[in-house]
UniProtKB/TrEMBL annotation, chain A:
Source organism per UniProt: Pseudonocardia sulfidoxydans NBRC 16205
Protein name (database record): Membrane protein
Any one annotated GO CC term: plasma membrane
Entry superkingdom: Bacteria
Domain PDGLE: 11-111
Residue spans crossing the bilayer: 12-31, 88-110
Keywords, ordered alphabetically: Cell membrane, Membrane, Transmembrane, Transmembrane helix
Compartments where found: Cell membrane
One matching Pfam family: PDGLE
UniProtKB/TrEMBL annotation, chain B:
Annotated TM spans: 14-36, 48-68, 80-105, 117-135, 147-171
Topology with respect to the bilayer: Multi-pass membrane protein
Source superkingdom: Bacteria
Gene3D superfamilies the UniProt entry points to: 1.10.1760.20
Pfam families xref list: CbiM
Species this chain originates from: Pseudonocardia sulfidoxydans NBRC 16205
UniProt entry keywords in alphabetical sequence: Cell membrane, Membrane, Transmembrane, Transmembrane helix, Transport
GO cellular component term of the entry, any: plasma membrane
Name of the encoding gene: cbiM
Name of the protein described by the UniProt record: Cobalamin biosynthesis protein CbiM
Length: 124, 238
């Protein structure tokens, strides 16, 4: 692989990382806070009321069986930093960094011998 | 945005312990096998790409988009990762996202991790890959057809992944709704979410293909000049 190739590739990967950071750190503030598809199904039949100690579910729905998350009191639980308001972007950026390090590290360790050129493998 | 944000994936307690355990074991075996098969698709060039694709999916999964008043959806990412890095590496990507979300962000229950991995990292990725691979002769021919392939694969991966939950609920779901209701609601919501999933997947695949088509697994692995052979070896899904 020639030097310009490597530079071009690095630029692309850096750009990709920047997009991920912008999405997690910025666009995340625009995300809908309505329940997602699965949560809408598990909440079906219940009236959700916000109370001082969380959500109260009145009626009959699947979500009433949900148990508290084992790491619910973790420092980044529910995409906030220590429960601080408006910290979703910071939590998101930390998440992207952790994810890219864990995934990148694992894939780097798993990678096989690099082929001299990116020849298409059989039918993969 | 409220501070009592709802989790995005299945919480603990929604399906019973034996069901969680069964799907946990199935997921461990399949993800382990995926790690073995992924080695063939990972090299100095694709490993960093796969790491970034994983982080990108984590980021985009944070973006819930509205689908109906009071209901939202977010990317699952199965077809997206399968098209960009292949199904084996892709399964690992989504699994890593789900593990990071469950451990660090309390998003998706810990005992429900196996069921969530089964639905999104295994069903979602392989269904998305199956559709994309079936259409890849088409996808190679023009940018527009590649985008259409990505859209269709993503739409199907979303709806079929949602059926994974219906299956788990039917086997060992907690009370609260009949399986028929769960089926109808899951498919209905996820058909709408699938449209968003399709748009995001097509846009992302299109953007990568525009600058680095050599980093799109689906295009890289397509037979160069014999589209008719695309159906060859249908048994091996990779």
């Amino acid at each position: 692989m020639t030097a310009p190739d490597t530079r071009r590739r690095s630029r692309f990967l850096l750009g990709f990382l920047l997009v991920a950071l912008l999405v997690a750190g910025g666009v995340s503030y625009l995300a809908s806070s309505s329940p997602d598809g699965l949560d809408s199904v598990t909440l079906h039949g219940c009236e959700v009321t916000e109370t001082s100690d969380g959500e109260q579910l009145d009626g009959t729905c699947i979500a009433q069986n949900a148990t508290d998350h084992a790491t619910a009191s973790g420092p980044l639980a529910d995409y906030s930093v220590g429960g601080a308001e408006h910290s979703v972007g910071i939590a998101g950026i930390l998440g992207v960094i952790v994810t890219v390090l864990v995934a990148g590290g694992l894939f780097w360790l798993l990678r096989g011998r690099t082929k001299p050129e990116p020849a298409p493998s059989d039918d993969d | 945005m409220t501070t009592t944000d709802v989790a995005m994936h299945m919480s603990d307690g929604i399906v019973n312990a034996p069901t969680s355990l069964i799907f946990g074991v199935i997921s461990i075996v399949i993800v382990g096998y995926a790690a073995v098969r992924a080695r063939a698709d990972l090299d100095d060039r694709t490993a960093p790409m796969a790491g970034l694709v994983t982080a990108f999916v984590f980021a985009v999964q944070m973006i819930n988009f509205p689908i109906l008043p009071g209901a939202s959806g977010h990317l699952l990412g199965g077809a997206l990762v399968a098209i960009l890095v292949g199904p084996w590496v892709g399964t690992l990507c989504i699994t890593i996202v789900l593990v990071v979300q469950a451990l660090l962000f309390a998003d998706g229950g810990l005992t429900a991790l196996g069921t969530n991995v089964f639905n999104m990292a295994i069903i979602g990725v392989f269904v998305g890959w199956g559709v994309a691979r079936a259409l890849r002769g088409l996808a190679r021919r023009s940018r527009g057809r590649l985008l259409a392939t990505a859209f269709v694969a993503a739409f199907v991966n979303t709806v079929v992944a949602s059926l994974g939950f219906v299956l788990q609920y039917a086997i060992g779901g907690a009370a609260g709704a009949t399986t028929g209701t769960v089926f109808a609601l899951m498919v209905g919501f996820h058909a709408l979410i699938g449209i968003g999933e399709g748009v995001i997947t097509a846009a992302t695949v299109g953007a990568v293909a525009a600058v680095r088509p050599d980093l799109v697994h689906l295009l890289r692995t397509a037979p160069r000049d014999a589209p008719a052979t695309a159906v060859r070896g249908e048994g091996s899904s990779a």
